[in-house]
Structure formats: structure tokens, C-alpha cells
Amino acid sequence: MTQPRLPLAALLAALATVAGTLVFSHATAAVDLRAYDLLLPPTAAAAPPSRVAVVAIDDASIAALGQWPWPRDVIARLIDRLHDAGAAVIAVDVLFGEPDRAGQPAGSGRSADETLAAAIARGRVVLGYAFAFDPPGSPAAPCEPEPLAATLVTRPGQRQPDERLFQAARAICGLPPLTAAADSTGYLNVGVDTDGTLRRLPLVMARHGQVYPALALSAVRLALDAPAMTLAAPAARPLELTIGERTVGLDERGALMLRFRAAADGFAHIPAVDVLNGRVVPGALDDRIVFIGATALGVRDTVVTPVHVQQPGIDVHATAAENLLAGTFVVPPPFRRVVESGVAILLAVLGALAVSRVGYRRAGLLTAGLLAGCWTGSRLLLQAGVYLSPVVPSLSVLIGFATVVVTGMAFERRRAEAEARRRRQAHEFVVKSLTSLMEMRDASTGRHSRRTQGYSRLLAQRLAHMPEFQRYLTADRVESIALLAPLHDIGKIGIRDAVLNKPGPLTPEELQEMRLHPVYGFETISKTQRQVGIDTGSDAAVLQLAKDIVYTHHEWWDGTGYPRGLRGVDIPVAGRIVAVVDVYDALVEPRPYRRRLRHEEAVELIVAGRGTQFDPTVVEAFLTVAADFQELGTRLRETPPHRLH
Question: Rounded to 5 degrees, what are φ and ψ at 128?
């Protein structure tokens, strides 16, 4: 794998992420909604001045006027006062389903309900009703609210828009005289998402093949004098509602994504008692849509919204009307999922390119910047009334970066392992070549060098488990010592044949010459190292081990060895290991000047040298693997020697 393949890995990860979010769309949708909640409050505070007001049946009004429900003539006076105050439309979030219990007011020629009907008949009043969603087969009530005068438009082969909406079974309306007096009606139903939070209001619903408006939509249509509407199912988004010149994007069930105002920046709430007592500031309600509804504790219906955990239901209708009037509702952009998926893939690939160009650390910072950019971009778009979720792009960036890091690290690890194998093969080639050269010069020295490789591995592996050597004798260093052990006598190439192959004991002069072979070997390696220029890295470390083995395997623990007279722990570990291995093999193999010793005799001599010639801990480790030494020596002795042809 090469670095250019990292973007491909990120692309595949991003595609898998996008596919996963489509497969598990319910889980993704829930996270999208939570992201919407996080982004919404700062956006809501920037909303323009409201053209909507709420006349609240609040605690103060109930305390002044008596318990709810109030007599209908009180509601009539409230509506009259709102007409007089200049309200453009009055939307009543109260269901008058039964006749007034107070009957006919004293001194009046009509009932309280007739008084209320007369107030409603002054015009531009919208009354609410409720839809019921009973199981199929439930008896239908005689209530027949007025459907929405909307033209349905759809593409060939697609379902009609009304078939996609929530399907109501029956309607629960107010008293017929009151409904007949109103200019329009609208249902009061609201809905919450699966997590219990209300973020959307079904703006239109269907019943028996007819489309019906929500209270807010009826109020806005009346305020805009837009009798004709169009409900379409375009290719770009699920549903689209046109009110005059305003186009409103809806979701697949006909719901409007609301943009709530922050609690401290909400639209005006005026106590009903203030309206009735004439305490409203002149002009405060001019040309506004005024919603009448309950906000008092014990009377109101409350919902959880992104900006408030107990928001009165009347505020939901008021928010929807305000969004429609000001154009501040949230619109799902055309081909939203396609756009989010495209952004997700693009950002993942950009993150991968960053890794390949600037490395993991800087790319991590860039990835954090991309994530921050996702959320900042979503917030800015939401301020403009368009919601693109940052969830899928963020997941794609994170998963893409993680995939690239894991892929890149795996690639680097494989490359490092391949390089390590190549270097080890090169080292092994050099060692075996030199060993073969030594074998051509002196067969016994060559075979001795090969046996020491196996002995050194056994002894080093055992020492690696002892506390004094655990940190130093890593697995790699154990293998390096075993690989390089055959080089310990490489300096004998510089010894004269007469001395090297002498069948009898050496004279003092010849012995002195023989003791120069560690120096010859050390100088040969050092000179070659200087010529090649290897002074750092793993190769330099391997050469240092080789020099330690060649130069110090004849040093004694008590300081009486050669060539430098090193003592105790000043002797490198590799030299201490090969010192025991060298002596053992020399004892159990025949020499021109003496017979071979039995394994047990060789072990006794090595034990005798503990603390003088050999490191006591190394001898202790040797004793635990001595039987393995004997078995390995026997096996290698039976193997035909390598010959060059």
C-alpha cells in the first residue's frame, strides 16, 4: 500500500458510514434531532420582531376572573376587545364543545353562546377543533370541519400528497353556531418526536381524502388573504406548500420544522385580564395574529421543546404562525441526504489527504477543525433557515480519520517489518558468508562458529527471564546475539596458518599472537563501519553488538582476561554470553591437541569458572539449559557440514 491509497481507504470508510446511516436511519434521525436542539438556541435569539402575540389565560387572569372555563360572554368580550385593539386575526386555542353552563345572562336577549357567536362573527376569527385517530371501523362523528382549499400536485407514478399525511379518523368540533360564525377553523393537534420533544408541527393532515389545516396555518392564510394554496410533492423534497407567494418546505408527513424563539426572547404574552380591563399599550396588537390560549398551571397543556422543558401548547401554534409569516421556519434543503452524504465523503477524503501530507498529529488538529467547521456551518445555515445535520459528516470525518490512522499505521508496521526482515536477511547473509569463509580457512573453526549460534540463542533466551537481564535482552536483541555469535572468531582470519592449525600446544609467542584475534576482528568491523558511514540507527546497534561479541568474549569476570582486562559488569552482556558458549563448545569438541570432553565434564569446568572466568548469573542460566546444549550439540554434530561448490 502507498500513501495515495489512504484517501481511498477514507473514501471507502465514508461510503460505509453513509450506507450505515441509511440502513440505521432511525438511530441517525434521533441523533440529528439532538444536534438540532444543540444548534437551535443561539439561532432563535436572532429572530426578527414578532408579528404574533399570545393573549394568555394565565394565573393572574384566573385569579381575577374566576376559575376556568370562564362564561362564554367573558370570552366574547375578550374577542371584542382584541378586534378593537386592531388584531389582524384572532386564533382561539379553546374547544367549545358543549353549551355554556351559565345559560342566558341577566337582562340580555340572547344566550352566552349567542353572544360569543356574535363576537366571532365580527370577522377574522379562527376556531380550533381536534382530530381523533381511532382504529379503523370506529363510528365517525357528524362534525365536518372545513377542508383546506388547496390544489394537490404530484409527479407521475408518485403517491398523492394527501396520501403521505397523517390520516385522521374523525373530528371533534366546537358548537355548530360558533363554528359557522368563524371565518376559518384549524385543528389543534400537535405531535412529538420519538424522544418526547416537539420540534415539528403537522401543518396539514388528511381525512377521508381531504386536506385540513392546522390552527396556525388557517390564521396565517387569513392574515395574508391567500385563499388558494398548493400542496405539491416535488422531486427535491418530500412535500412543499405554497401560500400565495410563499413556499414552505415540509417533511414527508406534512410537518413544519419549527424554529423556536429563546425563552428570554419570546413573542409578547399579554394576560387576558389586561385586555379585558383595557391595560394594553395602544398599538401593541395592531396587525398581529393574536392567539388566545391557556398558560396557567393546571389548565394549560405543556410540551417539551428544544428551548423549554414546559412550553405551553399555545406557544407552539404561535411559533408556527410566526415562522410562516416571517419566513423563519427551518427548511429541509433539496436532496438533503445527498448533500449531507456528499459533504461527509468530501471531508473524509480531505482528512485522509491531510494525513498523507502533514502526518497524524497535524492531521488530527485539522480533523478537529473539520468537525468544528461541520457544526459551525450547520449553525450558520440554521440561522438562515436551512438545516443540514452535522451528524453524518462528523461521523464520516471521525471514522474516516480513524480508518486512515489504522490503515496508515498498519501499512507503516508492515513496511517496518519488511524492512526489518530485509535487514536481518542482509545481516544473516553477511554472517553466513563470513562463516563460510572461515570454514574454508579452518573447518573446525567454521563448524564451531555455527554451533555457537544455537547455543547463544538458548542461553540468551533463558537469561531474558532473569531479573538482571529482562530489560536488556529483548526478543530482537536475543535474535541479534544469536545471529552474530558465529562472528566471535572472525579475527582468526588474521592469524597465521602455522599457529591456527598447529597440532600441539602453542609457544608463549604463538599464544600471544593467537590472543590478537579479538583485536583483529574488532578492527575489521570498525574499519568497515567507518568506510560505509554507519553511525546511527538499527544497523549501528547491530554492529555494536557484533563488536562487543568479537572484542570481549575472552574477557574474564575477575578482570584477568584479554584483550582489555575488563572486569564484572563492564563486560558487555553479549560478550559474557558468548564467553560461556565458546568455552563449552571448545570443551565438547575434539581439538588437534586434545580429546573431546564429555558433556558432564564440560559443565563441571564451566561451574568451576563461575565468578572467576564467567558471570555467575550467566553460569546459573547455563545450568538450567545445559541439557538442551547437549541435545543441540549432538544434533548439529550429526548434520553434514555445509560445503561450497
Answer: -100, 155
Instruction: Using alpha carbons, list the distances in angstroms from residue 39 to 194, 343, 395.
Output: 19, 18, 17
The CATH-assigned architecture of domain 442-638 is: Orthogonal Bundle (1.10)
Q: Are 258 and 225 in contact (CB under 8 A)?
A: no
Mean per-residue pLDDT over the chain, rounded: 83
Whether the per-residue pLDDT at 304 is higher than 60: the answer is yes
Residues 6 or more apart from 522 whose CB is under 8 A from it? 491, 547, 550, 551
User: For residue 383, how many C-alpha atoms fall within 13 Å in the half-sphere facing its CB?
Assistant: 9
How do beta strands 204-207 and 184-187 pair? unpaired
Q: Which three cell numbers stand for residue 181?
A: 360564525
The region of weakest confidence among 123-132, 361-370, 423-432 is: 423-432
User: Can you give the residue ranges of every domain in the chain?
Assistant: 50-227+257-326, 442-638
What's the per-residue H, E or C state across 548-566? HHHHHCCCCCCCCCCCCCC
Question: 10 Å Cβ neighbour count for 439?
Answer: 21
The answer to whether the bond into 390 is cis (omega within 30° of 0) is no
* CA separation for the pair 31, 25 (Å, rounded): 10
Q: Identify the residue whose cell numbers are 553460569.
A: 619
- 531-546 confidence digits (pLDDT tens): 888 777 777 888 899 8
Beta bridge partners of 125: 90
